[in-house]
């Protein structure tokens, strides 16, 4: 956490989460029960901060760590449903290695993260905050450089797109 606070000096909050189920792993890259145990390391780190570990100070003049909290818990025991219904099915939710999530698995994780940040009292103020983006544009050829006005009115539609392929439109506005 100290390294993160050094690299990202404005870091205030850090949500920690264990990895997803790894019982379908075909290799030695963090199979079960190690994936399950990663949840304990998250618990112990947060517990250390609560108990006053001096390397995890997040407020006052000697801050050297962000405030730590649980993020969404995404581990579930394969096809055995958790109380909230979460399961991990192979091959649908996993890539060929049985360790990394497939596109469907990544979507499942993303929806859990989104739902968590919408509901968590500490993340709602910044996660649900509206953002205004002001865009100024002039269509080439329509601008009268002498007056600084457009010779003709036109309509522009601006798209806000996901920053990952396939860059789906998340929102748009016309002006």
Question: Could you characterize what this model shows?
Answer:
- This protein is an alpha+beta fold.
- It folds into 2 domains: 2-127, no CATH class; 143-174, no CATH class.
- Helices cover 25% and strands 13% of the residues.
- It has helices spanning 2-7, 34-50, 103-119, 124-127, and strands at 13-16, 67-70, 143-144, 149-150, 157-161, 169-174.
- The strands form 3 sheets. The protein has a two-stranded parallel sheet. It has a two-stranded antiparallel sheet with strand order 3-4. A two-stranded antiparallel sheet has the order 5-6.
- A hairpin with a 4-residue loop joins strand 3 and strand 4.
- The longest helix has 17 residues, at 34-50.
- The radius of gyration is 23 Å and the shape is extended.
Please summarize what this structure is:
The chain has 175 residues and is an alpha+beta fold. The protein has helices at 2-7, 34-50, 103-119, 124-127; strands at residues 13-16, 67-70, 143-144, 149-150, 157-161, 169-174.
Largest sheet: 2 strands, parallel
Distance between the termini: 44 Å
Strand content: 5-15%
The H-and-E topology, N to C, reads as: HEHEHHEEEE
Estimate percent helicity: 25-40%
Structural class: alpha+beta
Uncertain regions: pLDDT < 50 for 5+ in a row? none
Question: Number of helix segments?
Answer: 4
């Amino acid at each position: 956490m100290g390294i993160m606070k050094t690299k990202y000096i404005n870091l205030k909050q850090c949500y920690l989460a264990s990895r997803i189920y790894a019982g379908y792993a075909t290799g030695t890259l963090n199979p079960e029960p190690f994936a399950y145990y990663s949840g304990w390391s998250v618990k112990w780190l947060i517990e250390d901060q609560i108990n006053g570990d001096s390397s995890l100070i997040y407020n006052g003049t000697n801050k050297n760590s962000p405030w730590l909290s649980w993020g969404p818990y995404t581990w579930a025991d394969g096809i055995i449903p958790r109380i909230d219904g979460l399961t991990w099915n192979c091959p649908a939710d996993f890539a060929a290695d049985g360790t990394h999530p497939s596109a469907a698995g990544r979507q499942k994780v993303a929806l859990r993260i989104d739902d968590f940040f919408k509901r968590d009292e500490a993340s709602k103020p910044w996660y649900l905050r509206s953002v205004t983006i002001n865009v100024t544009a002039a269509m080439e050829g329509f601008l009268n450089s002498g007056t600084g006005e457009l010779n003709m009115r036109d309509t522009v539609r601006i798209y806000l797109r996901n920053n990952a392929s396939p860059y789906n439109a998340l929102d748009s506005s016309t002006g």
